[in-house]
Amino acid sequence: MATAQKYTRVAVLLHWAIALLILTNVALGLTAALLPDGTLSDESIRFVIDTHKSIGIAVLGLAILRVLWRLTHRPPPLPAEFPSWERTAAHAAHIALYVLIFAMPLSGWLHDSAWVAAASHPMYLFGLFQWPRIGFIMNLDPAIKNQLHDQFGALHTACSYALYGVLALHVAGALKHQWVDRHSVLRRMMP
């Protein structure tokens, strides 16, 4: 495939870095959610949760870079053989992915900021430096924070299920075009 029909190296790197971090975060999130209380020491659970939060913030930062890169570097066009409905579906799926890739870490950050014990349990980004909570959430009345904590947690969970669904459609579409339609779309995003 010609270079003009591939994404840039930076776009490919950001795509796969975000994808791998999201998959890692899914595993960490499920690990923390599935463990019964008392299974691991409190310190082990905190490590899993803090790593999950750190990866979420990293995804948010990389997603910002990805959008800025996309705004300044035009992606390669879809193959001309794609019917218009498939082009529309592909664009809609990409928009949904971008929205959810931002919604996941933002809803998680809001959820964490509304945690009533957040002030006494600072969050460290990969254990290196303290990451701030969202100030106006931290300063709310504890009863309101507790209610928001539940609501932001539910939003974070709902976004995760939506992300799983859109991601499954994205992967299925790419594999369909690659193996059924015989369009080399996977090469566009391969290193």
From TrEMBL:
Instruction: Cite the Pfam families for this sequence.
Output: Ni_hydr_CYTB
Q: How does it sit in the membrane?
A: Multi-pass membrane protein
Task: Please tell me whether the keyword Metal-binding is annotated for this protein.
Answer: yes
- Kindly list the residue ranges recorded as spanning the membrane: 12-35, 92-111, 123-140, 152-175
- Please give the GO cellular component terms listed in this UniProt entry: plasma membrane
Give residue ranges for domain Cytochrome b561 bacterial/Ni-hydrogenase: 7-191
The main place the protein resides is membrane
Signal peptide span per the entry? none
Q: Where in the cell is it found?
A: Cell membrane
Which keywords accompany this UniProt record?
Cell membrane, Electron transport, Heme, Iron, Membrane, Metal-binding, Transmembrane, Transmembrane helix, Transport
GO molecular-function terms, A-Z: electron transfer activity; heme binding; metal ion binding
The reply on keyword Phosphoprotein is: no
Cofactor(s) named in the record:
heme b
Gene Ontology biological process terms, A to Z? respiratory electron transport chain
Membership in a protein family: Belongs to the cytochrome b561 family.
Q: What is this protein called?
A: Cytochrome b
Q: What organism does this protein naturally occur in?
A: Paraburkholderia silviterrae
